[in-house]
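ASSEMBLY PREDICTION REQUEST
Request ID: AP-0331
Submitted by: J.K., bench scientist
Number of chains: two
Total residues: 722
Priority: normal
Notes: Please return the full assembly, not individual chains.
Input sequences:
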Amino acid sequence: MSTSELDRPIWAPEDIKDEELARQEKHLREKHLLLDPRFPPEANRYMLDPMYRTTREFWILFVILGGMVMIFMTTWGIQMYWGLGLTGLNRPVMWALYIVNLVYFIGVGHAGTFISAALRALKIEWRRPISRAAELVTVFALMVAALFPLVHLGRSWKFYWLVPYPNARQLWPSFHSPLMWDMMAIFTYLSGSILFAYLGMLPDLAMIRDHSEGWRHRLYAILSLGWRGTEKEWSNQETALNIFSYVIIPVMFSVHTVVSWDFAMSLQPGWHSSIFGPYFVAGALFSGVGAVIMTLIVLRRFMHLDYFLRAEHFNGMGMFLLLLSLTWDYFYFNDYIVSWYGNEPVEKVFSHILTSGWAAPLWFLMLFCNAILPALTLWSRKVRTTPSALFLVAFFVQIGMYLERYLIVPFTLGFNEFPYSWGVYIPQVPESLITVCSFGLVAFMYVVITRLIPVVPLWEVYEGQVLHGLKRMGRALIKTKAEPD
Amino acid sequence: MEYPNRKWTMVVDLDKCNGCSACVVACHAENNVPIVTEKQVGRGRSIHWIRIERYWEGKYPNIRVRFLPILCQQCKSAPCEPVCPVYASVHSDRENMNLQIYNRCVGTRFCQHNDPYKVRFFNFFDPVFEEPLNQQLNPDVTVRTAGIIEKCTFCLQRIRRAEEQALVEGSSFLQAKVLPACVQTCPTGALVFGDLNVSDSEVARLCGSPRRFRLLEHLGTEPNVYYLKGGETNVNE
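STATUS: Completed
Returned structure:
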């Protein structure tokens, strides 16, 4: 290799004389982000320009979502003032939409860390531009999920009694209760996810600090914790991120397992099942990956991130979604057939109402959204790489997974050993408003954060671009990857 | 003074219950149980610490009905206790009963759905005692507020009073006569209450009956309410 070849910066295009090879190179560049490096100040601008500008669309969205947040808080306040009687809860069905939302949002929060940490640990390279957007989904979904047990409490203002702190009553919370495990699991995961996301954000924050003025400069000077980009800092960050990736994966698995124990550890027929742990984890990843796909498509569309988010990423995520759909099918079938074969009187009632009773439309819609639709569509590469089609499939997955949780929580709770105490839950206005607006709350936080931090981890992309290159084998160019030493 | 552990027990003779619901009314009066509106009852939010479940069998006109009075079973191994994150649902070894500490409850309602007998009740709103009902509230019993769970206590206040009375009189309080409101009111004597640890008590005698059973025994909750199996009851008779 000549000296001039070593001097060539990675973003400078290679001078290929051969026409066939030049064509191949162009094709590979278009296909793979990691083979398509740009001059860094230019690539930074792709990300920073939409961050610095607040368009009219942004403000419209800001006002709508902000209004939803206000409705959420007001409704919660009214409910606290009058009591939970405003909701549709009744005697057998004491846990309903709020718990469904808790499970749903924790589920959504699962994919972010999984994509970021597990794919990092597995050295899967296409994760690079999507990892931060996914981590942010985790952080905000978990924050809203952690809010729901409080919304659900009969006396929300006493929520701190669930927290272990020295108090005049000389009482610790009871660690026999799955709710305590649940709370501890959520907070471990939330704090872990925030730290993990923040750690990966440092080099980008420092980059913005160096490319901004005024309040932005002062803000990012604080946020970047004095990052200068020395070799020691990079290697420390690499080590820390690797440790985090491995540590947070078991936490992630434990969180939804513990959430499932809120149900599985109880005596309620239909819940008392030992498969709930892995079944909930699979379902959580399924809905979570769907939610990340939807987020990415929206970000790409409104922040013009076409350079960073390409067909290869949606292709990978689509395959992932299909895999998780099949995993969900496996667990659901397992759960269903065991209780069906067991033929317990109450569980017979469940399968009857689900397959041919009033809940049949919900049940079949769930099966269609979760099993049939992904299996029919996601096999096709064309669907996976067409953002609008993939968005639609991911959206139906959300509906299906929400229904699944709905059928697990308020539907199942309506039936117990004594038919005298059976009941049906019908959602009322307050909890419906809070539920709809909780999606607004997640979106609101996400929309605000897109103006504050780069949703694509630029340094990770650049790192990938440095490591990836082309090698010539006869008449063909192939993609290669170097391992940093 | 030493206080021996009690084993408060109720025996429900299903042969004697005619479903008159006097026990329900007595319980409301004794324990300040909120009376919810008709609309709320329709939405499944009635609160009765003891209730008569009616199960119909057969087709009209040959209908048989079974009455099943259900109250908190005061389980020895109560499923509602471990799930409470704030120790509002606790076990008392002294009384061998399951107690609900109202002012500790934050309203997670986990106990309610983990309770297979569905005898724990949530206050959806603050209770309203209209004139003149507010004049007859029992001063010995807390009036509960919105957002908490409540349930049968075997009239703990009456147990306490009887024991204190025995202490004052200097008699053995093991022999003190305790009557929960429902037992006191039951016109047919279907409900019997006493200490199973006292070998010559009425409940000890009835628990020796071959008709004896407990509700949902397969769940291993070990209730302290025993039922005596009833024969056929026909409403046409």
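REVIEWER COMMENTS: The first strand of chain B starts at residue 8 and ends at 13.
SIGN-OFF: pending second reviewer
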